[in-house]
Amino acid sequence: MQALWSRAGQAHHCGCKACFNTAGGMMRQSATRATRRKPTFSEMFTACYTSIMGTAAVLDAKRKDERRKDLDRQLEEAKAEFAKVMENAPADTRETAPAGSIANRYKGALRDHKKQQSEISDFFDSLGRTQTWPKAPSRSPEVEMIWAEYGLEPTRRSMSALLGTDYPSLDRLLFEDEALPNIQHRAPKTIRQMKAAENNMQQLVSSLLHGKAVIGSGDTKKTRRELDKAKHGDCDTQNLQQELAELRQSNYPHYEREVDSGALKKCSADLNRSLRSIFEVAQPSNLRATIMKVCHNLLVSSQPPTIHTYNTLIKGFDAAGLHPLASDVVKSLLQSKLEPTQGTLVCLLNHFKETNDSGKFNNIIERMTGRDCRGIKIRRKLIDEVLEDPSSRDGHY
Questions:
Q1: pLDDT digit string (tens) for 315-359?
Q2: Domain around 6
Q3: Between helices 191-208 and 235-249, what is the axis angle to 10°?
Q4: Of the candidates 158, 240, 301, 392, which lies 20 to 30 Å from 93 by C-alpha distance?
Q5: Could you read off the pLDDT of 234-293 as tens digits, one per residue?
Q6: Rounded mean pLDDT of the chain?
Q7: Residue 357, CB half-sphere, CA atoms under 13 Å: how many?
Q8: Is 22 part of any domain?
Q9: Which candidate, 302, 280, 313, places its Cα nearest to that of 205?
Q10: Does a structural domain hold residue 194?
Q11: PPR repeats at which positions (predicted)?
Q12: What span, in angstroms and rounded, lies between the C-alpha atoms of 214 and 197?
């Protein structure tokens, strides 16, 4: 095209001003006109990418708008159904969960409920520790005379019977606990746990065989004299003491590995039966032999002790008057991870009553009621376990 404009400018003209301007203009236009260039690959790619992404954005926006409208419709339907349910709800619907409801036993269950009234607990908290309570004032002479005149003064025998423990009833309670089929015993599952159980039993046996605890267990001088007589005069006791020394030198007990729950329950029942038979014949004259026999049975047992074994030991030592040894068993129990039964709590309270230890007695109650953060090693029950318990279904806990 430029060549044509150039040839046209070179054509002959008359030289007038009009012809000169026309030819000059055609020549300048042919010289200054830019050439058309071809588009590059990057420009073509950018144009295609922009058009594709724009089309995708339009389609995605349309789909999101449809999804938003569908969600709004579902939300409106749910609100309408909830409003209908609230309108048809009975007027006496509870705003708070019942006091004995299972829902109150799980974390977060009371999030939407009102806090239960606590006037009773606030009253007992205001009293302070029981050790600081003032003693009751003594009766006036007039009241003492009326009591003596009408025979209202309690006798020493009646008071001792009132404060005493009914150990046969406690025996029946422990036997019923042991016969329950739904109790699951905690058995060691690894070699490390098995070694820990063996070490704990060795420490318990060592504390039971401690000379000071054994000799000082009697409550009267007569009991101590009987212990001193039996210390060197009983040949069977000496043989048993020698056998115990050999067992302890051999690092007994040695518990069996990988035993099922049935074998564990049977071994525990046999051990507890032998311990009960030993405590039944316990007398001030054979207390040393009684302790050695108990330790011997604990060492030769093929399975770790269960919670029923601890119950039997605490009750047996308290009934025999060996309260320091029962305290050693209580200490070992509280350091273990065994779940207590109802009989365990009764044995603990009875032990601290027998030892006249009001501080630890109250501490056990605080651990039972949850005021002590350590608890009493009672885990939270599963809903299925609560439903299987008929007493829980009836509302009794």
A1: 999 888 888 889 999 998 888 888 888 889 999 999 998 888 888
A2: 2-32
A3: 150
A4: 392
A5: 556 666 677 777 777 777 788 887 777 788 888 888 988 999 998 888 887 778 888 888
A6: 74
A7: 15
A8: yes
A9: 313
A10: yes
A11: 306-340
A12: 24
Question: Which pLDDT value is given to residue 117?
Answer: 57
Neighbours of 380 (CB within 10 A): 9
Residue 377 tokens, joined: 């090693």
25 and 172 both lie in a single domain = no
- Identify residue 194 by its one-letter amino acid code: M
Q: What is the pLDDT of residue 314?
A: 92
Determine, yes or no, domain membership for 329: yes
- More confident call, 12 vs 369: 369
Cα 27 from Cα 330, distance rounded (Å): 120
> Looking at the domain assignment, is residue 106 inside a domain?
no
Q: What percent of the chain stands above pLDDT 70? A: 63
Residue 218 has pLDDT above 50, yes or no: no
**Separation between Cα atoms, residue 110 and residue 119, nearest integer Å:** 19
pLDDT of 56-107, one tens digit each? 888 888 889 899 999 999 999 988 888 888 777 665 545 555 554 554 444 5
Assess whether 23 and 172 both reside in one domain: no
Residue with the two structure tokens 């051999």: 250
Query: Residue 89 to residues 76, 78, 166: CA-CA distances in angstroms?
Result: 20, 16, 54
- Total count of domains within the chain: 2
Q: Which residues contact 363 (CB under 8 A, 6 or more apart)?
A: 372
Query: In one letter, which amino acid is 118?
Result: S
Tokens in use for 119? 């006037």
